[in-house]
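Following up on my earlier thread - several people asked me to post the actual chain instead of describing it. Fair enough. Here it is, all 263 residues.
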Amino acid sequence: MNRDNDINNDIKFLAKSEIRLKILSELDKKPNNIRELVKNTNITYSSISSNLSKLEKHEYITKDDNRYHVNPMTKVYFKSIMDFKNSVDIVNNFDAFWNKHNLNQLSIASIKRITDLEQSKLIETTPVDIYKTHNTIKKQIIDSKNIKAIFPYLHPDYPELIEKVLKNNGFVELIVPQSIFKELIFGVNNSVRKTAIKNGRLKVYIFKKDLSLYLTLCDETMSLGLFKNDGSFDQNRILVSEKENSLNWANELFEHVKRQVKK
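Reply from S.P.:
Thanks for posting it. Predicted structure:
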């Protein structure tokens, strides 16, 4: 218990000061002297000197040949603090997307790795473009040959979009609720559907419970949609990204939901 308290106190001490975090950020890149730290951070010499003394006194850093080095355990604390800070920033930056929405279907791993979405973009409908979110997703699917998607509801365009991908010798893997399965699948041309299933290019998993998220993972893009707390799907905003971290994040979430289907 005492060790836990020590760790908490260490993290509190480091996180409490923005100056100390900036100093550690610089020292985490490479050892530096005071003059270099002042130059790189634009913080006054006296503030840098004072905080370096405190960090050294508490053994978070060491001084060697006039340069300061971050101690190994301090690196661990610093990374934990910055991961948490970045997670908070993502939530705040996309407040309209996360706030008052159902996050229950996100896995623990996806929540822990929420910083993988830090370079995402929030796409929102406007009074002059009420189909902006749907058209964004539609373009992503049309331009791709490999699709993984979680469809919690049926849009009239979905069967046609799936059919186009399959006709282009693409691969489609879907997770859908029982309520839309037949209408979605039988909306695809019979011959195209059967050939794709036979060749392993179309796989559909039926989720017996309600789905509370929307996800598409295409060749080079991902998009995420959420349900509001009142149970309605928020068609007015989606989070999209082309970054590799985000695509990996989306794939992990897709596989997490798929494992629930297979139980």
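The CA atoms of residues 177 and 207 lie 5 Å apart. That should answer part of your original question.
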